């Protein structure tokens, strides 16, 4: 979850480190710090609990001697609370070495006891300071930071990205990764490290992906990568497909508001280049037809919002590819000894491509012979590299912690995947495929229409409900996962109770929650697709309305049957049944954002949450 930046080059490092950390604030953190080697060759460090601005203010009050080599960190507390002492960097080797760390070192207690027995005194409660002390001890033995790293990382258990500098080796940053993100940025006469390309995209869009259990050393003119045993590795290069301005607010009141407004583009960009002659053909899957032809079961694994996208994808894959699909929470999947094998396709979904629970589920699936495919929004991420194939979404950087445009891009990618698989398996006719492609092509304009026509209405509705303490969401068919997502968005950023239910479950228990004035959002399926399903949902509305609920209906244009039973109606354009979720979710995202704003809350950085969850 932490943000990590490293820099070596001709420019003063403090500005680069602080700007990089600012671009990584979306990851969630509770303290920040930097360490630099100044022009005189001395190591200087400053760290503060709280937001990055606290560190900036401290540096403004008492300047830190600057230099051209440095590392920076934003910490999410795990071992020890969010204090100045527990913040990173941590020092060792008589304060000549500074080290930062993302992840959790699981055997830190035994290692700490070993060091304490040697007389080492610790200044923090963290597992990170243990790693710093170990590297410092090895440096005193070897006099070589890369060799010291290699000796230490092979003793660590758990997930970690480590970066370190030593004042005796200016112009060098050494890093190592295991089960935690790290990428290299390639500049001209300068090089960068970051837990995300956002850390350095302002300066370069040329990057290298670092693999599992690898050590990297950067100088202004050279990048070397080895595995933990010391063997040379050639990292995978890629170009970042967006620029720094894409990760800036650009006048919007919040990143979330900006990202909701970008949803039409996110959907259009995910579709672009994947339709040929009226059929979906995904170039990344060229030559991978066996992924689909031989499977007798698909498992979609993900966490949180991504799992709800997977639930929508289940309907599409089963309808078009005619293969049974299960949706599994990644953190439950590998712990229940699931029945999988060579005829199982495991599809993982992760915006960051670093979600630890999902990564471990992918590794588990591969170990048992399953085929794996990832849906991801981040180039150079770990999960795509661990998978047999990848379909990238092209939502651009998503900075707000609560996912919006990445969610609609994930659903779009799953729809594309379903159409691609249906074509490859011969279960989807050319006519049906062409009709679905027409629906896909129309989605960006329809999402834009929802934003234009309903944003003010939904924002006003949220303002009226600012003191609401509980909201329920009901849906059926593809509306059910959207009900779950609507509830999750509200919980994430407004901190009030919200629950989503399959509408048919109402009478089996949840109706006990209905009392006079209880707000309930109901996603009504189109009567054009299923008159029976529409009638069932209208019946559900009557049940809760009879018990005093305040009913807010999301229904397609022209659906007059809901009017007698709704307190508020939010309209969405006509669309095919499997495409309605991309339209229906937009008002729910706007509602959550507007309600949180009305309550005076930070919609971009909700409490206790981080954008990229890189620990289990």
Automatic annotation (TrEMBL):
Highest rank taxon of the organism: Bacteria
Pfam families named in the record: GATase_6, SIS
EC number(s) on file: 2.6.1.16
CDD domains: GFAT (cd00714), SIS_GlmS_GlmD_1 (cd05008), SIS_GlmS_GlmD_2 (cd05009)
Residue ranges of domain Glutamine amidotransferase type-2 in the record: 2-221
Compartment(s): Cytoplasm
GO molecular function terms attached to this record: carbohydrate derivative binding; glutamine-fructose-6-phosphate transaminase (isomerizing) activity
Keyword line: Aminotransferase, Cytoplasm, Glutamine amidotransferase, Repeat, Transferase
Oligomer status and interactors: Homodimer.
Protein name, per record: Glutamine--fructose-6-phosphate aminotransferase [isomerizing]
């Amino acid at each position: 979850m932490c943000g990590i930046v490293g820099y070596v080059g001709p420019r003063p490092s403090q500005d680069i480190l602080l700007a990089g950390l600012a671009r990584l604030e979306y990851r969630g953190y509770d303290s920040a710090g930097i360490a630099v080697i100044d022009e005189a060759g001395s190591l200087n460090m400053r760290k503060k609990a709280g937001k990055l601005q606290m560190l900036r203010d401290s540096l403004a009050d008492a300047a830190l001697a600057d230099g051209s080599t440095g590392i920076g960190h934003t910490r999410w507390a795990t071992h020890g609370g969010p204090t100045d002492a527990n913040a990173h960097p941590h020092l060792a080797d008589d304060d000549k070495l500074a080290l930062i760390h993302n992840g959790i070192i699981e055997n830190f207690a035994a290692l700490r006891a070993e060091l304490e027995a040697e007389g080492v005194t610790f200044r923090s409660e963290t597992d990170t300071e243990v790693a710093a002390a170990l590297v410092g001890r090895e440096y005193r033995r070897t006099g070589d930071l890369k060799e010291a790293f290699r000796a230490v990382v092979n003793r660590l258990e758990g997930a970690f990205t480590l970066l370190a500098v030593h004042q005796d080796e200016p112009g060098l940053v050494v890093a190592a990764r295991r089960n935690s993100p790290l990428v290299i940025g390639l500049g001209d006469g300068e090089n960068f490290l970051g837990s995300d390309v956002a850390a350095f995209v302002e300066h370069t869009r040329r990057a290298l992906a670092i693999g599992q259990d690898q050590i990297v050393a950067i100088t202004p003119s050279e990048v070397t990568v080895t595995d933990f045993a010391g063997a040379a590795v050639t990292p995978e290069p890629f170009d970042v497909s967006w620029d720094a301005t894409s990760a800036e607010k650009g006048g919007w009141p919040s990143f979330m508001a900006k990202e909701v407004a970008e949803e039409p583009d996110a959907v259009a960009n995910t579709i672009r280049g994947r339709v040929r002659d009226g059929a979906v053909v995904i170039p990344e899957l060229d030559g991978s037809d066996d992924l689909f032809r031989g499977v007798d079961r698909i498992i979609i694994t993900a966490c949180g919002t991504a799992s709800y996208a997977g639930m929508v994808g289940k309907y599409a894959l089963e309808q078009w590819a005619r293969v049974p699909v299960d949706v599994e929470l990644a953190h439950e999947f590998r712990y229940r000894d699931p029945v999988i094998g060579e005829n199982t396709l495991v599809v993982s979904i992760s915006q960051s491509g670093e979600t630890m629970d999902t990564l471990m589920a992918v590794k588990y699936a591969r170990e048992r012979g399953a085929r794996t495919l990832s849906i991801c929004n981040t180039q150079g991420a770990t999960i795509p590299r661990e998978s047999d194939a990848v379909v990238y979404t092209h939502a651009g950087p998503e900075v707000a912690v609560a996912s919006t445009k990445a969610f609609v891009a994930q659903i779009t990618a799953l729809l594309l995947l379903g159409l691609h698989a249906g074509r490859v398996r011969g279960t989807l006719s050319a006519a049906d495929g062409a009709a679905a492609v027409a629906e896909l092509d129309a989605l960006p304009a329809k999402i834009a229409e929802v934003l234009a026509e309903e944003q003010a209405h939904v924002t006003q509705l949220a303002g009226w409900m600012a003191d609401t303490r509980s909201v329920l969401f009901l849906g059926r068919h593809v509306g059910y996962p959207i009900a779950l997502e609507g509830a999750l968005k509200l919980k994430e950023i407004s901190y009030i109770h919200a629950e989503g239910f399959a509408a048919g479950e109402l009478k089996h228990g949840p109706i006990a929650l209905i009392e006079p004035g209880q707000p309930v959002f109901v996603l009504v399926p189109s009567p054009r697709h299923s008159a029976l399903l529409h009638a069932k949902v209208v019946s559900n509305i009557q049940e809760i309305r009879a018990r005093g609920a305040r009913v807010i209906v999301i229904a397609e244009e022209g659906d007059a049957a809901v009017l007698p039973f709704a307190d508020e109606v939010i309209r969405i354009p006509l669309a095919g049944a499997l495409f309605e979720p991309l339209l229906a979710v937009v008002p729910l995202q706007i509602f959550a954002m507007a309600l949180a704003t009305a309550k005076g809350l930070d919609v971009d950085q909700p409490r206790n949450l981080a954008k990229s969850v890189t620990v289990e």
